[in-house]
Amino acid sequence: MGKVYIKDGVVYIKFNDSLAPYEIDVDRCDSYPKIVHWIAHLSEKSWCTSDIISSFIDTVCGHHGLNHHNDGAS
pTM (2 decimals)? Predict the structure, then answer.
């Protein structure tokens, strides 16, 4: 399972212990449309899993104060 974390304004996706993490500037995923863009982009990566996508969503939404569980999606 990959690890997603934010440090110094960058989202890091560590998907393999022997490789450098994938990096995204946190400001490039500060709204739902931008997050959806990144989900589509990440899902094309051979190393991306549903766990990484879920962790990415939780991490960036939490960082930006977006409540993706209750923001009108029903």
Answer: 0.88
Residue at 22 is within a domain: yes
74 occurs within a structural domain: no
What pLDDT shows up at residue 74? 44
Count Cβ atoms below 10 Å from residue 23 Cβ, excluding itself.
11
User: The dihedral of CA 4, 5, 11, 12: what is its sign?
Assistant: negative
Number of domains in the chain: 1
Task: Categorize the per-residue pLDDT at 67 as very low, low, confident or very high, splitting at 50, 70 and 90.
Answer: confident
Q: What is the C-alpha to C-alpha distance for residues 63 and 67, in angstroms, rounded to an integer? A: 10
Helix 50-64, helix 32-43: angle, nearest 10:
160
